[in-house]
Design a protein that fits this description.
alpha/beta, TIM Barrel, Immunoglobulin-like, 2 domains, 8-stranded parallel sheet, 18 strands, binds 2-acetamido-2-deoxy-beta-D-glucopyranose, alpha-galactosidase activity, lysosome
């Protein structure tokens, strides 16, 4: 059943259109200020962390010098609290001159000079969530033009202080206004998050036509509780959400908080793995100047990034929720490959989860599996029982290659790296 899906699904997607700006054919990646830096405007007392051009320049330096850019992390995104409390004499938004003395256009050039892109933030209401000037209906055109003149590459349109009627008009209008500037600007819509995130209130077909990505649900916070809540909401509603995603249009479960304070290493791996399964945008919100090597290794894991960035852009699903507290997630990938994640909700000790690929509905054949965190590989017949030890609040994640025609040589090679005979049915028991 699963092996057939990758063949069928692209035909379904052909019927639905994505926003036609040519952008974000794979989930966008980069860095976004909000979760870690919020509305810190106190540059006198907190010059390193306040929302200022220095912060964004620092992050751009790290992205371009520490190997992030080459992996795809190219957006540097400003969030709320960047502007002056007043529009200028021509009615245009302006950056706070104290914190952005060189202005946004200069900051965009700083990004472009380093092969990076700049994102900016606005709000559909009279005010932004942080109380700065909003972009209500009558300001949409002038603000879109301003962002284009500044050579901004992405725009997040929040929804505080606006009502459903205004949102219905404003989100499509901004899409048109951005297009009319002639500058390709990635468009992130917070609209569904303000309307409960689910049909019938949210029309995902329409969102896919006007936005590149959209926040469906609550803001992420720097805690495991928040990450788990988001995981449960997105996979609990996967039937409504997964088909909305595809090249150029993505569900956005919000930022990666890996490298901050709230997640253990196990939980950090879980966030990375499940964001890849979800084909989620990968926007880190952390301090790249001081990030630990452990967090960096997770965020820079090439195999997980390539799973996240799979060109088919099919959002994965939770396929099992076991009474034991183990969840299994699956995402079809190009070249008939797939990704599997085994996640433990347990809080006692590593749990030895036992299954086989055929129990997970893989078709008959011999598969090559690659553990993305341990870099171990093995060949696995669909019928072979295996055991994965999954740590509390942690994951095991596999890249599973297309089945090869069964051959003896394959089975001989299956008996390596911890493989053992379980003696029950004669099949080798593979433990990775
Ligand atoms: C604007 O929309 C048209 C038609 O959908 C598309 O061909 C064009 O590339 C878009 N331009 C920009 C800058 O997004
Ligand atoms: C939404 O806000 C506008 C003012 O911008 C107001 O005219 C309209 O009545 C409001 N609609 C609802 C449903 O509250
Ligand atoms: C959702 O949006 C699409 C595209 O704009 C439209 O064709 C469809 O009628 C809408 N569906 C509903 C239920 O409003
Ligand atoms: C994928 O599998 C289908 C049948 O299951 C096969 O026809 C096709 O050639 C395979 N594609 C690749 C790239 O292996
Ligand atoms: C496997 O397929 C059967 C039949 O379609 C389905 O009932 C079952 O839930 C599937 N199991 C998994 C793990 O996807």
């Amino acid at each position: 059943m699963h092996a057939a899906l990758p063949v069928l699904v692209p035909a379904l997607f052909a019927a639905t259109l994505a926003l036609d700006n040519g952008l974000m054919r794979t989930p966008p990646m980069g860095w976004l200020a909000w979760e870690r830096y919020r509305c810190d405007i106190d540059c006198d007392n907190d010059p390193k962390n306040c929302i200022s051009e220095n912060l964004f320049r620092d992050m751009a330096d790290r992205l371009s010098e520490d190997g992030w850019r080459e992996l795809g992390y190219v957006y540097v995104n400003i969030d709320d609290c960047w502007s002056s409390k007043q529009r200028d004499k021509q009615g245009r938004l302006q950056a706070d001159p104290k914190r952005f003395p060189r202005g946004i256009k200069d900051l965009a050039r700083y990004m472009h000079d380093r092969g990076l892109k700049l994102g900016i933030y606005g709000d559909m209401g009279t005010y932004t969530c942080g109380g700065y000037p909003g972009t209500p209906l009558d300001k949409i055109q002038i603000d879109a033009q301003t962002f284009a003149e500044w050579e901004v590459d992405m725009f997040k349109y929040d929804g505080c202080y606006s009502n459903a009627t205004e949102q219905e008009q404003g989100y499509p209008l901004m899409s048109k206004a951005l297009n009319a500037t002639g500058r390709p600007i990635g468009y992130s819509c917070s609209w569904p998050a303000y309307q409960g995130g689910l049909p019938p209130k949210v029309n995902y077909t329409q969102l896919g036509e006007i936005c590149n990505l959209w926040r469906n649900y609550d803001d992420i916070q720097d805690s495991w509780n928040s990450v788990l809540n988001i995981i449960d909401w997105f996979f609990g509603n996967q039937d409504a959400l997964a088909s909305a995603a595809g090249p150029g249009r993505w569900n956005d479960p919000d930022m990666l908080v890996i490298g901050d304070f709230g997640l253990s290493m196990e939980q950090s791996r879980t966030q990375m793995a499940l964001w890849a399964i979800m084909a989620a945008p990968l926007f880190m919100s952390n301090d790249l100047r001081t990030i630990s090597s452990g967090a960096r290794n997770i965020l820079q894991n090439k195999m997980i990034i390539s799973i996240n960035q799979d060109p088919m852009g099919i959002q994965g699903r939770r396929i099992l929720k076991e009474k034991s507290g183990i969840d299994v997630y699956w995402r079809p990938l190009s070249k008939n490959a797939s990704a599997l994640v085994f996640f433990s909700r347990r809080d006692d000790m590593p749990y030895r989860y036992r299954t086989s690929l055929s129990k997970l509905n893989y078709t008959t054949g011999s598969y090559k599996i690659f553990d993305v965190f341990t870099n171990k590989a093995a060949a696995l017949k669909d019928s072979t029982e295996f055991v994965v030890p999954v740590n509390p609040s942690g994951v095991v994640m596999w890249y599973v290659s297309a089945p090869a025609a069964p051959s003896r040589r394959h089975y001989k090679r299956a008996r390596f790296q911890g493989s053992a005979d379980d003696g029950e049915n004669g099949d080798p028991l593979v433990v990775l």
